[in-house]
Each structure stands twice: as C-alpha cells, then as structure tokens.
Amino acid sequence: MIETLVIIRTKNEDRWIKPLIKSLEIQTYQNFKILVIDNNSKDRTLDILKEKKIKFLKIKKFLPGKAINMGINYYKKTKYIVCLSAHCLPEKKDWLKSLIKPLKNPKTVAVYGKQIPMFSTNSQDYRDLKLIFGNEKRIQKIDYFFHNANSAIKRNILKKYPFSEKATNMEDRIWSKNILSLNGGYQIVYEPKASVYHHHGLHHSNKEKRLRGVVKIMKSLEEDNLIPDILRPERQNIYAFIVGSVPNKDEKLFYKINLKLIKDLKNNINIKKIIILVDNEFKKRINKISSNKFIFIKRTRKNKEQKIIDLIKMVYSKFKNFDIDYLMYFNLDYITRPKNFISKLLTTVTKKNIEISTFAYQVDTNIWESKSGKYKSKSSQLGYDQDSKIFFNTLYGLGSLFFFNSLKKETQEMSIEMLKLKNPLFLQRFSRSEYEN
After folding, report:
1. Which class is domain 4-231?
2. Residue 328 vs residues 164, 292, 306, 325, 353: alpha-carbon distances, Å
3. Of the candidates 148, 111, 349, 135, which has an alpha carbon nearest to the alpha carbon of residue 224?
4. Which residue of 153, 291, 353, 356 has the lowest C-beta tally within 10 Å?
C-alpha cells in the first residue's frame, strides 16, 4: 500500500511543476503517490503532467480546502497526506522523510516545514519567509499557525475533520485552530529540516523601499543559498537554436566566426542539443565537426524570410513534446559577440524569474516631446529630464535565452531581462536584411 499521498494544487505552473516533479523523483523516501488538482491551467502545466504520467484531477471553481479534500477522497488508502505548493521545491533529498517522521508520534496530527526564499523572491516575500520560518523545531499545542504550502497530516484526522470547503484562503489555519481547540491532546509540529524553496511570501504590506532596507540587513547577517539545486543551469535541459545564411561577401570571416560558435555550443556541457537552420553549403561544413547534438531543420524560402518570433514558434511547435527547459537563440549574421556570452546568458537562469533574456544596446537619441507648445528633451545626448525614457535596441540574434514553456504565450506577455551592452561593435552584421532574425 502507498503510505503517503502528495497533493499538489496548480494553476498555470509550467514554470515550476517540472523541477518540482524532478525533486520528488530523487527523494530518499519513495513510498508516495503524486496527485495534482488543477484549476483551469491554460499554459503547459497539463502537457507536462501528461508527459510525466502524473495523475491529475480538474477543479473548475477553486477553493483551497475543497481541492485538498477532493484529492483525499480520490485516493482513500494512504496513511499520510502531504500538501505541497506547485512552486515549492524541496531543498534536500530527505525533505519528505523529515516531513512525515514527526507523524509517527501518536499525539502529532500535522507537521509543516520550513520555507526559504530563492533567487526569484522579491524583498517583501524574502522578509516574510525569513521572519516566520526559523531554525528551531517547535511543538505547538496552542499556537495554531500552520501552512499548507509544505505540510503533512494524518489521513484519519482529515477524514474526521476535513478542511473547510467554504474558505477562500487560510484553510490551513482555520483547520489547525479547530484541531488544537479539541480535547484530544493533539499537537502540530514545525520541522525546519523539512525545508522547501518558496518564492512567495505570506504578508502583503509595507513600502518597497523600506522592505529593501530590511532585506539588506537580513542578508548581511547570514549568507543564503537562494538557488535550488534542481534549477541550476547544469540541471536544465537547454537546447540551442542557430539560424543563418552565408552572406554574399566576407564568406571566409563568416565561416570562421560561426564555426567557432557551433564548436563552443557543442563543447558546452550545459547545452544538450543544437537545432540548426542553415543553407546546405554551410550545413556541409558543420557536418565535418560531427556531433550527436546536431538536429538539422531544412532551410526553405518560407523560413528564410520569417521573423524571429515565427522561427521561435516554429521550433516550439516541432519540439514541444521534447523535454526542453530553455531555448537559446543565435543568428549567424552577427560579426562580434561579447566575451563569455554563452555563460552570461546561462547565468540569467538563476538570477531572476524571467522568460526572455537577451543582449541589448542602449540607443542615444535626439527625441523631443511637444506638449502644449512646450518642448522636453528625451535625448540621451543632451541629458535627461526627470521623465525621460531610455531606449534599447534588443539584439535577439546576438544571443537570447527563452524559457521554453512560455513560448506558448504571446511574447508581449513575457518578462524580459536585458544584458546591457555599450560597445557599438556588437551592432555589426554581415548583412542588413529587413528581417532581424
């Protein structure tokens, strides 16, 4: 019999659900079953669950307690119920073992674990998590603080005292207050060894400026590892996608630069496959390098004239059933690239929770704004006024990194991180096509 049921509630969690499943697969304790309760996800969450053969149920009108009760009633024979947020990633391989261990005590009805911030956590959430989840184990007989983002409960208790199906939030604390008010001698345990990374916080107040100050002090007191191991670049499935045509001039330089690019991508251990869309003439030269990383796409008149978004969407359509986390994009038309440009792109994976990372060049302008007969300079050449805007030319083909699941969305909806460049040499191209792929 499966001892533990892990219930994960989701709604558009394709950013987190795959690394979460991978984290569960390497737990030292494996006597568990995963069940996902999904609330109308429109992204790739359900596609990933199907690929991973994870059972999921759908709930249209979401209420947190109702979703958990729904999962409990579906699998009726497990001894323990674990509630885990879809955007929580276990810190260590013994997370689940540590979480359910206190339930062996007859008096313990529930356990909740530590939540720690990660690289994508904003100042407010960082502060909340650090202040609330400490390093000392606690046994609570009166204090009813409890949190279902990372918790374990005995099934026989939940069967007798289910979660409220009317509460729109805080179903966990409503339940725990009810349990501890009974005359059963029950207790709830806080187990800091059962820790998960969680990029959300618990409170929503205070100004950002003050929060940054508080977090700065917190970070000065202790060094935190904010990057879950499962999210490091070396643990990701990263594909590269290169596009290009041999120019009518400077062919020798073109081959020299871009054959080196392909060799660098081939030798990079973080890049699993290289999707190549080039002319037949260049394809012959690439084949001399020889690598099982190469995947060639036939160059046609249609894709030769497509814009970058069409090319990226085409790759997404062809490879969406592959296990891809990130897609790097390079256009062979660029003559000069920044030093260590591949590494710089890869480091953005664990810097911010972004969907596009690309190189960009700040543009100096002579733009003026006319309003009510008066003019304001928006020009970087004459200095900015308080309301001036800074303009950037995004050089996608110089080097970009796309979170693969986000390619299902429109690019305008994606968050972007720009790696700013100052040297105009990076603007140089072998050709000046109207299509900036």
Report:
1. alpha beta
2. 46, 18, 18, 10, 16
3. 135
4. 291
